[in-house]
């Protein structure tokens, strides 16, 4: 149906993103979550994470209307319990049993278990994204994720093995390919997102990755060589030297290496994000992320500093800083018919238990 004054069909609109993230509100939330996690032996983290997401979603706007997060801490907690009972406990039993079979038989069992764990990591990543989509609403309409978690898990394993075989060379391509099923399977109601690998490839990533990997590789092996040399010399001169001194030395050298790693890989991280976003579309709407390497470096260095100084307490502030940084640089061109989107089903009843166990989630 067309409007006589405007040739654009009704319901079709351009997409404009905005954010109203206030870091101060997340500072108090960080302290609250940290204290409650301490009192509850980290069990409160499921409810704390839910509150962080709820505030973040409310501060992110599309066409002047905020997103809404409807997940619950109880769902995350139940998902974690299910993961521990259905996966964690059986794995512990198998590993413990393998210890009684002798080294040869144990190796035959442990190696497949490691491969299985990598499949589970991919499975968990897809499941976490699916849960987040199902609990995200805009204008009252849910998002949803279609696709196979099992297929994604085996894809993750395959890409990881290729990266190992190629000494890390394939990993940038793997990261881009792994983004495909997540974004290509995403729906706003019944409106489908698309991911074009060809469009993503128009943003080069290897010319940023290659020098970063080479420089960091040289620095890493140099630092490891110095640590081993100092440790060997200390043991030779004083065999009973305390382990605490070596631990302090290792951290004293690895911390600057981590900071340098952030700076060295910032151009690649910025290019990778630009590449993935360039591959995403929703009907005729195309997306781009206007992020430069210097801005990415300052964001990640600031986040690293906050986490180190607060011993992880300020993680909600880090998440808020990251969301504010990315959303303020997210742009769109073209249009999409969002008004006629049909409501999606609610989705899974429990949330991202495996992802929590593996640490495969960021938000």
Walk me through the structure.
The structure is a single chain. By secondary structure, the protein is of the alpha+beta class. The protein has helices spanning 23-39, 45-58, 73-98, 103-134, 149-165, 171-184, 197-201, 206-237, 243-278, 293-310, 315-327, 353-358; strands at 2-3, 6-9, 12-14, 17-19, 60-62, 65-69, 136-138, 141-145, 186-188, 191-195, 280-282, 285-289, 330-333, 335-337. The chain has a 10-stranded antiparallel sheet with strand order 4-5-6-7-8-9-10-11-12-13. A two-stranded antiparallel ribbon has the order 1-2. β1 (2-3) and β2 (6-9) form a beta hairpin. The protein is globular, with a radius of gyration of 23 Å.
Biggest pleated-sheet summary: 10 strands, antiparallel
Give unreliable regions as ranges.
none
Number of distinct beta strands: 14
Output the strand order for the largest sheet.
4-5-6-7-8-9-10-11-12-13
Proportion of residues in helical segments: 55-70%
Any idea what the radius of gyration is?
Answer: 23 Å
Measured between the Cα atoms of the first and last residue, the distance is 40 Å
The proportion of residues in beta strands is 5-15%
Number of helices: 12
Q: What kind of oligomer do you see?
A: single chain
SSE arrangement, N to C: EEEEHHEEHHEEHHEEHHHEEHHEEH
Mean pLDDT, all residues: 90
Structural class: alpha+beta
Principal-axis shape equals globular
């Amino acid at each position: 149906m067309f409007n006589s004054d405007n040739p654009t069909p009704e319901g079709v609109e351009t997409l404009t993103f905005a954010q109203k993230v206030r870091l101060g509100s997340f500072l108090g939330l960080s302290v609250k979550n940290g204290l409650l996690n301490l009192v509850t032996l980290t069990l409160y983290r499921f409810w704390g994470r839910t509150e962080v997401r709820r505030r973040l979603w409310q501060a992110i706007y599309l066409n002047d209307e905020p997103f809404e997060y409807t997940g619950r801490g109880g769902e995350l907690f139940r998902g974690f319990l299910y993961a521990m009972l259905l996966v964690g406990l059986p794995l512990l039993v198998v590993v413990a049993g393998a210890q009684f079979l002798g080294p040869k038989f144990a190796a035959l069992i442990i190696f497949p278990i490691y491969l299985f764990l990598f499949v589970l990591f991919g499975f968990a990543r897809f499941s976490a994204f699916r849960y987040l989509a199902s609990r995200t609403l805009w204008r009252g309409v849910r998002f949803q994720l279609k696709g196979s978690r099992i297929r994604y898990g085996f894809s993750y394993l395959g890409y990881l093995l290729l990266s190992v075989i190629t000494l890390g060379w394939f990993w940038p391509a793997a990261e881009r390919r792994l983004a495909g099923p997540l974004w290509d399977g995403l729906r706003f109601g019944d409106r489908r997102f698309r991911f074009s690998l060809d469009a993503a490839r128009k943003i080069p990533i290897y010319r940023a990755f290659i020098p970063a990997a080479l420089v960091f590789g040289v620095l890493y092996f140099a630092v490891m060589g110095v640590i081993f040399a100092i440790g060997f010399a200390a043991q030779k001169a004083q065999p009973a030297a305390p382990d605490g001194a070596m631990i302090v030395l290792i951290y004293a050298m690895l911390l600057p290496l981590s900071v340098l790693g952030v700076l060295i890989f910032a151009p690649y991280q910025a290019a990778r994000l630009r590449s993935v976003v360039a591959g995403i579309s929703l009907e005729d709407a195309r997306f781009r992320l206007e992020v430069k390497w210097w801005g990415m470096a300052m964001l990640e260095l600031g986040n690293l500093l906050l986490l180190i100084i607060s011993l992880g307490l300020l993680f909600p502030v880090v998440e808020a800083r990251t969301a504010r940084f990315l959303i303020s640089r997210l742009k769109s061109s073209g249009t999409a018919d969002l008004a006629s989107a049909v409501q999606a089903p609610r989705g899974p009843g429990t949330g991202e238990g495996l992802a929590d166990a593996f640490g495969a989630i960021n938000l």
